[in-house]
Amino acid sequence: MTTSLVNLDGRAGLRRGDRVVDVQTASDGQLPSDPMAVVRRWNDFRTWATGLSDDATAEAVDEARLGPPVPLPQKVFGVGLNYTDHAEEAGLELPKEPLIFTKFPSCLVGPRADVVLTSDRVDYEVELVVVIGEGGRDIAEADALSRIAGYCVGQDISDRRMQFAGKPPQFSMGKSVDTFGPIGPGIVPIDEVAHPNDLAISCDVSGETRQDARTSLMVFSVPELVRWLSRYCTLAPGDLIFTGTPAGVGSVRDPRRYLAPDDVITSTIEGVGTIVNRCVAGAG
Ligand code: ZN
């Protein structure tokens, strides 16, 4: 049964299957209630979770109550054009170095949160999101997975109108509007992910499959991204890497297909989980 760390009403929860226990309560106060503080003590959390017997008092998970499993990371990296099929559909050359932008942490919301549309050109991008564990500087590729806490599913929601309003385009603001970073449902520990560099990844919009690929199509793999980023930035516990999206985004379809109010975005990664986000009209 998959284990994950969830954010239930702002408190860290240990989830197994469809049940959850409060981490601070079930650990008799040995571990904190703040999900960020639990991520900073990832190895202690893992040791405790492994030793915990299946608790009969655990409650059923109500996914509507789940917040972002990492609510306030120090850094959120995004990676542009990181799937070969997506670069191809966009008609752009494969990058020789990772194309990094930021999503400001205030855009993060939970796995069932609504996405508030800011224009008629808001787009979906399903992405594997890496949650840094121990982190550090100058991490070798061979050590990268051991410095990661785990994975979650994310949506790098993008307002293409903002992104491409000027020349050159600007990525960060159009991808950082409040609610433009749904993540979850929880952090699945990296050692519980069977093939961490080759996972099925897909996105449906209102029941229609729009993206369907594998993470092995990444131009820069997760270990390569961790190595590259940590050459320049100290990776801190809880930092997130949105690792790029595969082919099928709305802005490069013919005809273009953007998100509309009442659309439901369902994003799934094999062994990591599913997040479901409804679109609602915003002020625009
Ligand atoms: Zn993206």
Please specify the SSE layout and strand pairing:
Layout: E1 3-8, E2 11-16, E3 19-22, H1 23-26, H2 35-40, H3 42-51, E4 59-60, E5 66-67, E6 76-80, H4 84-89, E7 99-102, E8 108-109, E9 115-117, E10 122-123, E11 126-132, H5 141-144, E12 148-155, E13 158-159, H6 160-163, E14 181-189, E15 200-205, E16 208-214, H7 222-232, E17 240-242, E18 264-269, E19 273-281
Parallel strand pairs: 6-17, 8-14, 9-19
Antiparallel strand pairs: 1-2, 1-5, 2-3, 3-4, 6-7, 10-13, 11-12, 11-17, 12-14, 15-16, 15-18, 18-19
Bound molecules: zinc ion.
Give an overview in words.
- The chain folds into 2 domains: 59 residues, no CATH class; 206 residues, Fumarylacetoacetate hydrolase, domain 2 (Alpha-Beta Complex), CATH 3.90.850.10.
- It is 16% helix and 33% strand.
- A hairpin with a 2-residue loop joins strand 15 and strand 16.
- The longest helix has 11 residues.
- The radius of gyration is 18 Å and the shape is globular.
- The protein starts with a strand and ends with a strand.
- The chain binds zinc ion (ZN).
- Zinc ion binds next to loops.
